[in-house]
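2024-03-11 09:14:02 INFO receiving multi-entity request
2024-03-11 09:14:02 INFO entity count = four
2024-03-11 09:14:03 INFO echoing inputs for audit
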Amino acid sequence: MPQTFKPAANTIATVSLFAGAAVPFIAFLTGSTMTNSPYNTKQFVPIDQPAPFSHKHHAYELGIDCRFCHATVEEGAVAGVPATEVCMTCHSQIWTNSPNLEAVRKSCETGTSLQWNKVNHVPDFVYFNHSIHVNRGISCNNCHGAVNKMELTWKGQSFKMSWCLQCHEDPSKYLFETEAVKSGTISPREQVFDLYRKLSSGKKLTEVEYQLAEGLPQVVPSDDVHAGVAAMKERGINVTQLKDCYVCHH
Amino acid sequence: MSRSSRTATFATTKTMSRKKQGNAYYRGWEQFENPEAFDRVRADEFPARETLPGIDRRSLLKLAGGAAALATLGSGCRFQPQRKIVPFVHAPDSYVPGKDKYFASAATLDGYATGILVRSYEGRPVKIEGNPHHPSSLGACNHRTMAETAVMYDPERLQAPSLQGSFGTWGQFFTEALAGGKLALLTGNVSSPALHGQIQAFLQRFPGSRWFQYDAANRDSAREGAVLAFGRTVETIYDFERADVVLGLDADLFIEGPGTVAYGRAIVGRRDPEGEMNRLYAVESAPTTFGATADHRYPAKPSEVLSTAKAIAAALGVPGSVGAKGPDSVPVMEIVADLKAAGSRAVVVPGEFASAAVHACCHAINHALGAVGTTVRYTEPVLADWQNNSNQLRQLASMLEAGEVQSVLIFGGNPVYAAPGDVKFAEALAKAPFSAHLTLADNETSAVCRWALPASHFLEAWGDGKGHDGSLAVVQPLIEPMYDSKSEIEVLETLLEGSRSGERIVAQGWGLSPKGWKEMLARGVSAPKGAPSPNVSPIPNLLAGLPDGGSGTEVRFLPDPNVHDGRYSNVAWLQELPKPVTNLTWDNSIQVSPATAKKLGAGQQTKIMGVIPFYGAHDIVRLTVGESSVEGPIFVNPGMADDTVVVHMGYGRTRGGAFGTVGNPETHGGGFDVMKLRGTDSPWLASGTLIKAKGSYPLANTQFHNTLDVHPEDSGRDIIREVTLAAYREHPDALAHPSGEEGGAHHEDPHLPKLLYNNEKEFFDPTTNYQWAMTVDLNLCTGCNACVTACQAENNIPTVQKEQVMNGREMHWIRVDRYYRANGEEFDEANPRITFQPVACQQCDAAPCEPVCPVAATVHSHEGLNQMVYNRCVGTRYCSNNCPYKVRRFNFLHFTKRFEDVSVLHLMQNPDVSVRGRGVMEKCTYCVHRINHARIEAKKEEREIRDGEVVTACQQACPTGAIVFGDMRRESNAVAKTRASRRNYMLLEETNSRPRTTYLGKVRNPNPALEA
Amino acid sequence: MAETPLNEKLVEGTWTERQVDERIADIILDPSRHTEAQIKVPKFLDKLLPAQAKSPWTMMVGIGFLLVNVLLVAITYLVLTGIGIWGNNQPTGWGFDIINFVWWIGIGHAGTLISAILLLLRQRWRNSINRFAEAMTIFAVMCAGMYPLLHTGRPWVAYWLMPYPNIMGLWPQFRSPLIWDVFAVSTYFTVSLLFWYVGMVPDFATLRDRAKPGFARIAFGLLSMGWRGSAKHWHRYEHASIILAGISTPLVLSVHSIVSFDFAMSIVPGWNATIFPPYFVAGAVFAGFAMVILLAIPVRKWYRLEELITMKHFDWMAKVMLATGLVVAYGYCMELFYMWYSGSPFETSLLRNRVGLASGPYSWSFWCLILFNIVAPFPLWFPKVRKNLTALFVISIAISIGMWFERFVIIPMSLTRDYLPSAFGYYTPTFWDFAMFFGTIGFFVFMMFLFVRFLPSINMFEIKELLHQEKHDSDHQPATAEAH
Amino acid sequence: MSHGRDTAPKPFGVVAEFLDAESLLEATRKTREAGYRAIDAFSPVPVHGLTDAIGFDDSRLSWQVFGAGLTGALAGLGLQVWTSTAVYRHLVGGKPFISLPMFFPVLYECTILFSAGAATVLMFKLNGLPKPHHPVFNAKAMDRASSDRYILCVEAEDPNYDEEALTSFFHGMGAESVESVRTSEGY
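2024-03-11 09:21:47 INFO inference complete, emitting structure
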């Protein structure tokens, strides 16, 4: 008998053909979803630290300037993590017995360094320079997320290359000048920290200022986009060059 | 294992060893209080460090490539362990992590110091550059000086005192040393007042003790020449800037001897065809970089060099030289006429390793020319207590034999290896009951000594030293000693039972106020004092007393241009650096002229049918001098004098470290030892015989001899443009527009060849972007190779070792091409013209490499740079195939594995440049990290980058300033000026690649009387 | 039951449709067909080996399998160690890797040519050999495809050559001939595979119906997708075949043209020749037919297919080889001519390098090329030679070697001597170069004999159709010979 | 089938077996002349004229493949233009961002890939394949339909379907065998 298959074979055959064709697509989608997910990028994943440091408390509630701890952010490639003695500047006076600060005290006593877990890590082969970004008025929170609202710190952005390129393609959306900068009283760099200061002291911020300070997605009104373009021109930011490979890879 | 944890492991082990030895490891010299934390900071905090590719990622990706499709699909997928940030407990002041700092210091070779600036990251010295204030450096330095970082980070350095091969302590050593009697101190030549002071104190403290000096590459000839000529020692200093005519007699002016860097700049600085060009003559037995630069070069045996000197002296009327006749091959009369015409503005320079008689003749000639006071001046010797080194060693050996010396303290050097054949130093030394060798690394001498003591490298220790002109420079450490080591002055200080620190000893000698001392440290060199010039004049009838030259096959022993007397044997950078002119790496050879080789029936073959790997099969020949003989590969060196042999010292090491020790010739090299062929009476010259021996030996050359095989049809290859000064003056455009003269394939307007698409504006917008460009002045290039080493150090370029060099896989981003050309109408391999051309990535505007890259790993920047992105490269090598200049380098194997495996080599890497893993292409980037650095600083200050603010590593190192780099948009910029020169041309412009690196054509200034 | 004997012309002997099926399908369904022929082995082996092992199929698959293992070792070592295990260097960025790539791609071309171009040209003699040649295409392209993948320094990121959205925001650089290669070769492989499979569907139905109930029947039943041979099926099937043939024809021409662009688009002297595309395509056909002959001669003997693959087929193939060989020879001459005519010093010195035995280190390979590719095929002018299997076999081997040398002459020879004499070099292949090469040959042989064992190696339905047509022709002589 | 499995065999059609293509062709023509419309013919080789004889014509394939090819061309070109202008404007060897001559090969290959894929997929789809099970396989004669037998079938859905009449009609045309096929399944 030539009838080899049961009728169900028809359905099975058709379905398996479609399934077989779908496998690569599913695999690709799974892979790219995983790659883009916090599982891989570690975005939004709070990292445990030897001492549970709260940026929210220090930077937002207490209003301590970022540069108090990240001292080299304006001049060096690296923002810098404070030495134990910086912590102890205050904590030799206050919270001296807090169990949370045990690790810090121990470091100070023994002279061995604290070992913080790294939260923000630029991928290999990328040269990132904090100072130029801050000096150009790029808010810390643009790349680090709303750090001033984080209890334990997490990676605020994915740090994927395509993410970096969003800004390097057209920084105007991320640049903005407050009246103070426009009038020349403060530099774009100071504006960054000025906004944080205002935020934590409860001063009223405009919508755009608030977005900048919080590192929120930039829903900038069109006027301010133009302002950003103007700011770029003023500061001689050259967009064509910003996307050159050698800007970050060498 | 992550990179950071590996580095941390290294730090931890070092920390442990430090604790054990009670010695602070690895601190910046100035202010770091917590080295331990600091180590970790360096390892973990700086993202720049993390550009070193880690094995973890690589192996992960390998796996991923094979199996885990999920891991690869996202392409950025990396499953990395948690990294740590380890800050200080107490941070040093004004410390910016990741920022480089420069410190002034000085590097000493054979007693003479050259001022340097050392770039340091987080307390680790990474790159050595010249100190513009130092007269011996003038801001540049040579390949050996730059390789000193590799010496310091040599993983095989001695790390702790060793007593007959087992662990010892410094305490034990000092106790033993002070107990011994009949002390002798053997050092190299000393110019350092601090060290000399310590030695003097030592000699006083221990009466009856003796001090001997020996360097294998010593200046005995210069010393004895002066003694012959003047009856006393003097230091001869040349002022080439004032010299219109220079005659070098076997003078390798740009490579050997004190002041080479400064002399190179001075000589070549006078070769601007727009100004007054000097004229250079070279009479030499083997081609040197000076000979290649010279307008007239005559091969002559050493004896003929001497007779030339005598003949010139005779022609100039020096008494006692009547009737002296030069060799037929040298047009003595014409040269003399030219010298006479220049008069006091002429100078005759003897080679560092020419015989004392030649030196004496030269003194006489310069006197006769009236050059003394103009182009030549004499000072008191720079070296303290300058002695005839060979005699010193012979004397020490005989005293050891006789038991007159019981205890020997050897500071540095390697006398057991480097002793001449007639001094049985090893046997003598073995007789001493107490012997100690203070040395950077284990070597032949420390093997014989009872004690091997770790010496501090000069980057780790305080000191000072004098330059070629006597200017005094300070040596300051960049890093605390990495191991349990001491410097020479520190050892002497302990022996003197003093307790002063190294800095204190040095500073005391200088006698400066604390403020003055600080300023001194910043400057690095003291302003030259008006040193008294001894009034000397040649002994009458000097020439009559001079010996005649040798006969038969004359053998010259020379320090190797790279590894010198063997002290740099274990520096892979220098081993792999192509030796000037020969382009040989990893070995020494028995160099003879083509005619001599033919007579000998020996030679070198290229590959049989191009495939069977016999490339570089050089016949082995036996060289016999007196009783001793040595076998080595022959190297046919066009332009050498016939019946002359040149062999380089520094090879054939038995304890030279991984790279220095003789190994399997197929993979390693290491050469053969000629030290024992030398005699104390005439260490540089001997009569010998040469016979063909059995077998052959592979030599690793970076450039083949077929460049010599200039076929008539090949002359159309318009690679080096060269004209005579007269022709240039007549047709100033002859170099930029040679069409019609040398025939062939040139466009009418070389500066603007047509592109298929006219996208000028869109692509190369000069209104907003910097437009980087470089020019290389062929008139100024001496082929000294400093740029190659500078580039290697700056850009973390790995060495690949001999086997891979033979495979053609060396990684140098810049290479110095050597071309043999016809010297006149016909090509003559007995005396070809030699030209050098440094070639790095030409950064073509219409780069042929770019369109062929399938993944856009090499694309153009808006500033005109041809960008090579390592992390995007998949390694198809298509770009390299399509590069007409073949300047791209591919990591065929994991060449940087050593950087990753050997933890101390982590410290040597420049953190601003990625370390490339295997399978990716790399090439010259115009030192883009320096550009970026300057750009960021300029932007922060809201200004443009200034001209000269960005200096590429090769440009920085170039002693003669042949390389000019900058933004070509502004007409006032240096590079715009050189590009506007009438000599400016593009290499291979017919490919229409429109390179950003252009060359300034060569103009020679031959003597019209000698131009056939 | 009565069988209608069909007439013969290209197929020798008298055949019924049933006999055609039997002869071809039984190669798969009857294992004894593989042990019919025996290979003579040396005496000492004769006793050691069981009779089955001496069958040509076992032998060839065995040899193939061994070499596949060599290939696997070579690939593993390569991926772990790097391209440095090969002889590639500066300046010779490409060596055996790309030589072999181009060589294999070329060999693959005969399959598509026979099945597509000859189908469009209504060449009936294609029918006995097309399936075989198509299989050859598939496996040759697989061998070829390995090289571009593995020749990259970092094969684990070679997927970056495919366009897909990624987190880097980067895409391939579409101006690179290597990207064209990726598209051309993957398209070529896909289309060949589809063409091959579509061609086999009716035969799978035949096999399904002939197979005894069991695994083979189910397997072929699934592969045939339930082919019923309905007139409607045939209608669309023939439509699709013609379309596939129609698009495969420009495809096959484009693939080797694009492969030749790897060289022609560059600026390397000796590579940048505009004549490359046509002469690469001709060379591909040349090499492909040689490989078909090399495989057809033994297979035909071992599987008693002499009546289906007749001397007429060999005659035709030899003629195609002769013709394409002449095109190739013309290509070589023009290459040399333009080197001389250009007057460019780089080109003229390349000419001297290539031709002058004394002046070029690899000129011997050029003369090998001339010997194997121009001199060796010359006897094909004579009908006697075209009908002599030994001669054909020898000539085909020569052509295969010659075509390999053609790529050797073009690739390393040009790269080792290009613009700057200072950058001149040598190219010396290593053991691993050869291991990869022979490994892929082994893979090819292995796959070909698996194919012979498990898939219909001659197109049954087309042979039957051919028999019908010829019967039809002889019935209606001479009127409508080319009626279809 | 919403009403559950109907186990009672239903007629599928009447199948006639012929020994050669000519007989089949002739029989088919006659069957169609006799007014039957639900005709199918099965043959081991394509028989010229058989399609006309059963009254079937379908040229959708060509047009659909053409459409697919056009899609491929546009996709290929679009991909290249989009990635090299909108996504990342790389400066490559002084070439324009849209280097049409250099974009042609990929465009070309995409056209071919899409066409070939479409031709294959559509051929199977229009033919209703894969269909490993089919009622006609219940016919004994189908055993050799892929080898050397030529089968004519009139299906039960034909308005004039009458098993007995058909059986005799087929026998009358010289069929080697005639059988009526039943099926218990829908198809």
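2024-03-11 09:21:48 INFO post-check: Residues 8-36 of chain A form the longest helix (29 residues).
2024-03-11 09:21:48 INFO post-check: Residues 20 and 37 of chain A are 26 Å apart (CA to CA).
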